């Protein structure tokens, strides 16, 4: 199906992976990066955290593009009850991947879609099992530089796919934008039409 949104659409994220997912869905949009503080609040659940950031990004984008329909999104990784964000450097990336090696973790995304009048937000969760990685595999992957800037220090749409043993749930959520949830929100906001490709 080819989807169309009949109004200006703004992605409040500079993520190339998210941009590519929207392009592959046939959506016309522009990117409006926001500078939202991603610090966790004391006692905040991971679900509240990602929804808050997605909503803050959407609101920040609307301040610049008030006539647009905005997509705010934030993705993080939860491992054994602890948020695993983006690595600070290569050593930190290696530390994160060592933790995740051979284990299940959750990729959790907050998605906020709407305009100045109404904003809807949801949470999408995907379970991911990482292969047990050897020291050589860890070193080689970290050396590519791909883990930097990625929640959980890997990119499933890139070389990181070789680290993953299985997933349960939305693949695009692990990439960083749950397209099934996005389509549902757009339909609920009555801005989406579909036509055969």
Key descriptive features of the protein:
two-stranded antiparallel ribbon; Maf protein; 197 residues; single chain; seven-stranded mixed beta sheet; alpha+beta; 6 helices
Q: Indicate the low-confidence ranges by residue numbers.
A: none
* Total count of strands: 9
Helix/strand-derived category reads alpha+beta
Shape: elongated
Report on the architecture of this protein.
Helix 1 links the parallel strand 2 (about 10) and strand 3 (about 30). Strands 2, 3, 4, 5, 6, 7 and 8 form a seven-stranded mixed beta sheet that branches. This protein has a two-stranded antiparallel sheet with strand order 1-9. The protein has one domain (about 1-195): Alpha-Beta Complex (Maf protein). The radius of gyration is 17 Å and the shape is elongated. It is of the alpha+beta class and about 200 residues long. The protein is built from six helices and nine strands. Helix 3 (about 90-100) packs across helix 4 (about 135-145). It has helices at about 15-25, 45-65, 90-100, 135-145, 170-175, 180-190, and strands at about 1-5, 10, 30, 70-80, 80-85, 105-115, 120-130, 165-170, 190-195.
